[in-house]
Specification:
Bound molecules: zinc ion
Strand content: 25-35%
Largest sheet: 6 strands, antiparallel
Radius of gyration: 32 Å
CATH class of one domain: Mainly Beta
Number of strands: 10
Number of helices: 1
Structural class: alpha+beta
Distance between the termini: 108 Å
CATH architecture of one domain: Roll
Order of helices and strands: EEEEEEEEEEH
Length: 154
C-alpha cells in the first residue's frame, strides 16, 4: 500500500469524493484505510457495565485504499505515488512535483540536523563556562572592615 498512517489523503470516488482527511489507521491485509471524517457510520453501543449508558457513536469505517490518493504537502494535489531512493532509503514521492511524501524521512533528516547542532553545542558550553568562571573569579573584592579604633583620650 502506498498510503500510510498520518498521511493526508483525498477520496477520489464514492459518497465522500473530494473530501480530504488524515489517515487514522491502515489495514494492509484488507487493503483498507480509515480516514478522518470519511465513511462515518453509526455504531450502537450497548451499556455493558453498571455506570455505562447505551449510546449511538459515530465513527469512521474503513474504505478501500484504491479510493484514495495521497495529498502532496508541497503542491497540494492529490497524486499517485512514485518511489525513489534517497540516502539509501526507499521513499515515496509525489508523481506531480517529485517532492518526498514520507514524513518519517523528512523528520529523520531534521533529527540529524538537531544531532549535528548538539555535537557543536558542548564546545560552546565549555567556552561559556570557562569565561564565566574567569568573570566570577576576578571581582572578588576584599571587604576590609575599617572600623575606627576607639581610643580613650584619658
Ligand atoms: Zn507534489
Amino acid at each position: 500500500m502506498n498510503v500510510k498512517v498520518n498521511d493526508t489523503v483525498q477520496v477520489i470516488t464514492g459518497k465522500y469524493k473530494g473530501k480530504q482527511g488524515k489517515v487514522l489507521a491502515t489495514s494492509p491485509k484488507a487493503g483498507t484505510v480509515i480516514v478522518e471524517g470519511v465513511n462515518i457510520r453509526q455504531k450502537h453501543e450497548k451499556a455493558r457495565r453498571a455506570n455505562e449508558t447505551s449510546k449511538i457513536v459515530s465513527e469512521e469505517g474503513p474504505i478501500d485504499v484504491s479510493n484514495v490518493e495521497v495529498v502532496c504537502d508541497k503542491c497540494g494535489k492529490a497524486t499517485r505515488v512514485g518511489h525513489t531512493v534517497a540516502d539509501g532509503k526507499k521513499v515515496r514521492v509525489c508523481k506531480k512535483c517529485g517532492a518526498v511524501l514520507d514524513k518519517a524521512y523528512v523528520k529523520k533528516s531534521k533529527a540529524k540536523a538537531a544531532e549535528d547542532a548538539k555535537a557543536e553545542a558542548p564546545k560552546k558550553r565549555t567556552r561559556k563556562r570557562s569565561a564565566k568562571a574567569a568573570e566570577t573569579a576576578a571581582p572578588v573584592e576584599e571587604t576590609v572592615e575599617s572600623t575606627p579604633a576607639v581610643t580613650d583620650g584619658e
